[in-house]
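Same chain as my last thread, 274 residues:
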Amino acid sequence: MKNEKKFLALALSVLALTSSCDAFATSNGNEYAPERQQAKENILNGKTLYFLGSSVTLGMRSKECAIPDYLSAIDGMNCVKDAVSGTTLISEEEGDSYYARLVHSDRFDKNARIDAFVLQLSTNDAQHDRIEKWGTVTADDVFSPDAFDIHTTYGAIESILAYVEKTWDCPIYIYTNAYFGDEGLRSIGNTKGSDYAKLVDGAKEIVAKYDGKEGYEVRLVDLFNDEAFNDISDDDYRFYMADAIHPYRTGYLYWWTPYFEKVLLEDFAEEEKV
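reply #2:
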């Protein structure tokens, strides 16, 4: 009987792995590659965006195709990404934190004129052993980089905003993950959705502090809390997502990028009116 149970467990594991591999191949098919998509003519053509993030910005489960790659292919944008899987906003003693990569990046031209800077709110910062390192958002009248602690999540975000504003003087977007929970299909073992929700609230607080103050233009692209955006069937979710954090190519192409594209189209249209 013990051998039969072991065989059953092994068979179920193999079946799950096979199913996962099939989904990876199907949802990351060549037909969903950025270069296979129809290009559009619109006001985004020729705009330059810099993206700073981790695995979601990289496209870890989508053959390194993510929002920047689809915006470049479909909307004719010049999107440059500096993204390393597993990295955090928190500047830790070891590793390539967001802030360190921003300052020392050879991908971002410090002398270029760019149209916007995009910052991913990393789910890695919401892992249980890092929550105590979030820190606090500084007071509403504090904008000096000397006051920010890059060894905390919020301090690192404020430091990044200050660096971007000083270097490129452009609009800044902070974007979140799509909704994920603490259990069920839309959950992942190492990070609770309820914890990430609190991190998103902190990002909202930062945006409220900075937008329209001291020359800053900061906007939150909140995929996490948009109920209409997250209202998709379980079948579509499985087709789009490799896990609760990482989209396949289909997820970026059909779900995430159109949302981001709509935000950019509206914002740049407003800018042209001014």
